[in-house]
Amino acid sequence: MLKKLQKMPASRLIVIAYLIGIFLIAILLKLPISLKAGATISFVDALFTSASAVSVTGLTTVGINETLSSFGVGVLIVAFQFGGIGVMTLGSFYWLLFGQEIGLLQRKMIMIDQNRNNLSGLVQLMKLVLGFTLILEAISTLAFGLYFYFTGEYGSIWSALYYGMFHTISAFTNAGFDLFGNSLLNYSSDYFVQALTMFLIVLGGIGFLVLAELREYFWGGHKNFRFSLFTKLTLVTTSVLLLFGTIGFWLTERTHALAGMSWHGKILTALFTSVTSRSAGLTTIDMSTITEASLLLVSILMFIGASPSSMGGGVRTTTVAVIVLALIAYARGEKEPKVFGRMISQEDSLKSFVFFLTGIALLLGGIFILLIAEPNRWGVSAILFEVASAFGTCGLSTGITADLGTFSKISLIVLMFIGRIGLFLFYSLFTNGKKKPLIRFPEEKLIIG
Q1: Which one, of 128, 131, 90, lies nearest residue 110 by Cα?
Q2: 161 vs 51: CA distance, rounded Å
Q3: What's the distance, CA 59 to chain centroid?
Q4: How far is C-alpha 14 from the chain's CA centre?
Q5: Which residues contact 384 (CB under 8 A, 6 or more apart)?
Q6: Cβ proximity of 324 and 244 under 8 Å
Q7: 95-130: b or e for each residue (b if 16 or more CB lie within 10 Å)?
């Protein structure tokens, strides 16, 4: 059995590891020790919750604070770390902890799990990810815990730290789960909680490679350090999307859901919604009350998702950026898109279009399946919102998740899983180890458009 696993392509090993993790977490959530007294959970709901936690999505069919015990919540926290940081990052920690050498197969698995193109610097990156994660989560847990305690939210400092730790890990891993029962609606006017939450969400969704380069730029001590094209494009695209989402949500809700708020309250709520729509799922506003235009806007943001090699899902920011650049280049009569003084390869352009269209196909397929499985129960906009949330591993919902049938839940589980592993790894399952054909057929022009 072990020899067969060693011969298996790295991409399939990673997918198997995630699937095993999902089923193990589901089994643990079914144990009586994971449930509060009198609470029950079906296997489908346990599997859905497990898949949502491992894929760091946040969609739930049960009330976490009403169903799970402290042990069950601890299981979820492990699932967040497992899914958010990545199975190979945690594997690297195990190998390093016990002094084992990280071989070529393990390096290939890390490379695919982190959506990298080469093997260089992977172990150092994993060390940085682990160290940064532990330090950031510890500091944020302390900050949230002390804040909750001194504002009188909880009578015990340990209870405040407990809630602070869960919220910190949920935000940083972009998991989107909460113990408050209504996400962050109780903190819709609390600027400290919202600001720190947004900070954690952005750091978790911007990508580990970007964080590594930012660290090198500010604290590496290299005078001539230059950001990679990937980091530049990621930072610019992320900023543009955050601004677009904030302005768009403010325009569509300023006289509706945001009515009655102060001007700075409107801006902060719109900004928080823009940030969380990219992958996190925590919200300070009831999504079932927003307009159809806002539902469409947030669905688009969820579909785009976070950046590659991050804790978020979706088609990813650089995919959309390359497509936009390619469209601009074509409109100008240029053959290849360029940005920041660099040409983008045809392979990356083709890959971006393939991933984007695959994402569209999965989105439409999910909508079609849910409309068949849930006839005349909800409108297309609510179904679109739910499917986009699952694929983008976001977790926002208009409140229909718990009422979905078994087949619909399984469909969303598949979408959450694909959204977590990413389309790069998804396609690697079919292409890994295959040789390129030696025969090249004659080229012939087609009539397009």
Answers
A1: 90
A2: 26
A3: 12
A4: 17
A5: 295, 296, 299, 363, 367
A6: no
A7: beeeeeebeeebbbbbbbbbbbeeeeebbebbebbb
What are the angstrom distances between the C-alpha of 228 and each of 24, 211, 215, 312? Answer: 39, 12, 13, 21
Concatenating the DSSP letter of every residue in 33-67 gives GGB-TT----HHHHHHHHHHHHTT----SS-HHHH
Containing 338, the helix (H) or strand (E) segment is: strand 338-339
Give the Cα separation of 221 and 217 in Å (integer): 7
The predicted-structure confidence for 174-229, as pLDDT tens digits, reads as follows 999 999 988 999 999 999 999 999 999 999 999 888 888 888 888 876 777 888 89
In angstroms, the CA 161 to CA 153 distance is: 11
Q: Give CA separation, 431 vs 11, 242, 416, 435, in Å.
A: 10, 34, 22, 9
CA distance 13 to 298: 34
Distance, CA of 339 to CA of 304 (rounded, Å):
20
How does pLDDT run across 118-146, given as a tens digit for each residue? 555 666 777 777 888 889 999 999 999 99
> Which ranges constitute the DSSP H helices of 176-262?
191-205, 208-219, 229-253
285/272 Cα distance (integer angstroms): 10
Instruction: Enumerate residues 6+ apart whose C-beta is below 8 A from 178.
Output: 64, 65, 166, 167, 170, 184, 282
Residues in the chain: 449
Please give the single-letter amino acid code of residue 311.
M
Query: Cβ contacts of residue 186 below 8 Å, gap of 6+?
Result: 180
Q: What are phi and psi of 378, to 5 degrees?
A: -140, 160
